[in-house]
Design a protein that fits this description.
single chain, 4-stranded mixed beta sheet, 20 helices, 4 strands, membrane
């Protein structure tokens, strides 16, 4: 009996399941630094006029912290990873739907099949363990929101619907509330509308209606955050600085104080871009752009602009973390949709070879993703969660009321310890930017709120020598080194207190599942 080809809907559904299964590594590893930091901020959240979150400082808008707080309330600290798995599945569904609409707009046949191929590629790239299939951060949580904005934007253009336009604007801006570099939805929708006007596919009256509706929708998240700030007493200048102003100052700091690992991170980004198949899809789209522009200029311009902006955000960020590569997946899979739609308009000979090349690229992303997950499972016990082991050991040795400062931006150590930090900076970049001479840290070490424990995860002068002599003297005078955890983290304890019994088991692999609902 011959095998029955699965329907496009079945392929999309299976791709959604694959995207969820691709997040299995998130059940096998303890809290990552950003996740831990966001949860600490969320749990201690109490707004003040000059501090949006109160106890701890983070350069994120309220929506992402609110999402972590809500998730923690529903199912505990690790439930956010369930939310991320659901977000990955919704992203696949939204990408397939958006690709179908792009195909319809371009006049291509077989829109359902095009959506199915896009769903497969989206699931593969989203599940790529080399990028990040563990941490639940703004990128993976915001991608379905970005793609939803694109879906509504195309719908607004096809149906001349102000409701679709308003929803597109709302989602595009909401995505920025989850991660400030998620501008893709705004760029896509803006270029799509403007392109339709310039090519006479949209008259001025409809353009004004749709643009106005999109603008109105986009103001909803902004007004909600501003309104919240006014109600709880946060100054608008504080809100603006935390959300966007800080990034300007931080960029200058990154330029002046580059990390010793920057070159390695850049190399890793390029390597992952190649081995994941993401770079090949982008290049194939770029090579086909001249023809695509002739056939369907408006959606091509929108996808190309989105791809440029999202890719630039990765390589101009100054930090080059591999998780950033999740962001350009959205325009890359929309580019794939345009490539597949364009095949319908080719001569038979060219359609065969061009189509074969495109499908080989999709197959490559699937194979690469599968290999990455298998490799993760094969090697994960070779890597020890030293931060978790260090923090947990400190927590077990600590006395009630003890506090901890983790120098160098290791919120995962802070989280695992269960101890409060008297220092507001849980990340290294805010510390380097807002406390450049370490005056605030020095005042804490010499004041009544001096931490019981101090963990040094980086050299004191890793980024700058400013203020480090005073910190070093204070550690030598008032603290004693009680352990070097796993050969990586120097653990200090207040000298005036009874020396604790501290034992860090650095040979213990993390061989259990995290509690996703507590």
């Amino acid at each position: 009996m011959p095998l029955t080809r699965p329907t496009p809907r079945a392929v999309v559904a299976l791709s959604m399941v694959a995207a969820v299964l691709g997040r299995i590594p998130s059940l096998q590893w303890p809290m990552r630094p950003d996740e831990a930091g966001f949860l600490l901020v969320a749990r201690a959240w109490h707004p003040e006029p000059d501090s949006m979150f109160g106890t701890y400082w983070v350069d994120r808008p309220p929506p992402i912290i609110a999402l972590f707080k809500l998730s923690d309330w529903i199912g505990g600290p690790y439930f956010i990873r369930v939310v991320a798995a659901v977000a990955a599945a919704v992203f696949v569904l939204a990408a397939a739907g958006t690709a179908r609409r792009l195909a319809d707009y371009a006049g291509a046949r077989g829109a359902d099949r095009i959506g199915a191929w896009v769903a497969v590629a989206t699931a593969a790239l989203t599940s790529q363990a080399a990028i990040d299939s563990v941490a639940a951060k703004g990128e993976i949580l915001g991608l379905p929101v970005v793609m939803g904005a694109c879906w509504f934007a195309i719908g607004a253009l096809m149906r001349r619907s102000v409701w679709h336009a308003g929803a597109a604007g709302l989602l595009a801006v909401l995505a920025i509330g989850l991660k400030q570099n998620l501008f893709g939805g705004l760029v896509f929708g803006g270029v799509l509308l403007l392109g339709a006007l310039l090519t006479k596919r949209l008259d001025r009256r409809d353009f004004t209606r749709l643009a106005g509706a999109a603008l109105a929708g986009g103001t909803v998240p902004v007004l909600a955050v501003v309104g919240w700030g006014l109600v709880v007493g946060v100054r608008l200048s504080t809100l603006a600085f935390v959300t966007f102003g800080f990034r300007v100052e931080a960029s200058e700091v990154l330029a002046q104080q580059p990390s010793s690992t920057i070159d390695a991170r850049i190399h890793t980004l390029f390597l992952i871009t190649i081995v994941s198949g993401l770079g090949a899809l982008m290049l194939w789209f770029v090579l086909r752009v001249p023809r695509l522009v002739r056939r369907s200029v408006v959606p091509t311009a929108a996808v190309a602009a989105m791809l440029v902006v999202d890719s630039a955000g990765v390589f101009l960020s100054g930090s080059y973390w591999r998780t950033y590569l999740l962001v350009p997946i959205a325009p890359a899979v929309l580019a794939l949709g345009l490539l597949l739609a364009d095949e319908q308009l080719m001569a038979r000979h060219w359609r065969h070879w061009i189509g074969l090349t495109t499908r080989v690229l999709v197959a490559f992303t699937v194979v690469s993703s599968a290999v990455s997950v298998v490799e993760w499972e094969r090697t994960r016990n070779d890597y020890l969660p030293t931060e978790y082991l260090t923090g947990r050991a400190i927590g077990e040795a600590a006395q009630p009321g003890d506090t901890l400062v983790a120098y160098g931006g290791r919120a995962d150590i802070q989280w695992a310890s269960g101890l409060r930090s008297p220092y507001e900076h849980l990340w290294s970049l805010p510390m380097r930017t807002l406390d450049p001479d370490l005056d605030e840290l020095g005042a804490i070490l010499t004041g009544p709120d001096a931490p019981t424990w101090f963990v040094q995860s980086k050299r004191l002068d890793e980024w700058s020598e400013a203020g480090t002599d005073e910190i070093r003297e204070e550690l030598l005078e008032d603290y004693e080194l009680v352990s070097i955890a796993c050969g990586a983290y120097r653990i200090y304890h207040q000298r005036r207190l009874v020396r604790p019994e501290l034992e860090v088991d650095c040979d213990q692999p993390f061989d259990r599942l995290v509690p996703i609902f507590t």
